[in-house]
Amino acid sequence: MANIKSQIKRNRQNEKRRQRNRAVRSEIITRTRNAEAAAQYGDGEETADATRLAIKRIDKAASKGVLHPNTAARKKSRLMQRLTRLQAE
């Protein structure tokens, strides 16, 4: 455990950020799963809404610094590839 006041504060800040980032990443995974499920079982409009939400969350995470911009682009690209493949089936 840190003895220095500034380090104690820094540890508190880091923990808050870690929890927030973890929640954002978890939401991205959930939104992606929802979009894939909608593409597999739902109609076109439902799929479009779920996809739009997933991409919005990925972009927001990248803009806030939770995800690297290249990681966000890769996630969006892979999501669109999966959705295209699911809709083709």
CATH superfamily: Ribosomal protein S20
Structural class: mainly alpha
- Give me the strand/helix succession: HHH
The total of helices stands at 3
Shape: elongated
- Can you count the beta strands? 0
Q: How many domain modules?
A: 1
Which percent band covers the strand fraction?
Answer: under 5%
State the helicity in percent bands: over 70%
| Poorly predicted runs | none
Which fold does the CATH topology refer to?
Methane Monooxygenase Hydroxylase, Chain G, domain 1
Describe the structure.
There is one protein chain. The chain has 89 residues and is mostly helical. It has one domain (5-88): Ribosomal protein S20 (Methane Monooxygenase Hydroxylase, Chain G, domain 1, Up-down Bundle). Helix content is 88%, strand content 0%. It is built from 3 helices and no strands. It has helices at 5-41, 44-64, 69-88. The protein is elongated and about 60 Å long. The relative contact order is 0.12. The mean pLDDT is 94.
Any key phrases for this structure?
mainly alpha; 88% helix; 89 residues; single chain; Methane Monooxygenase Hydroxylase, Chain G, domain 1; 0% strand
Summarize the structure.
With about 90 residues, the protein is an all-alpha fold. Helices cover about 90% and strands about 0% of the residues.
Question: Secondary structure elements and their pairing?
Answer:
Layout: H1 5-41, H2 44-64, H3 69-88
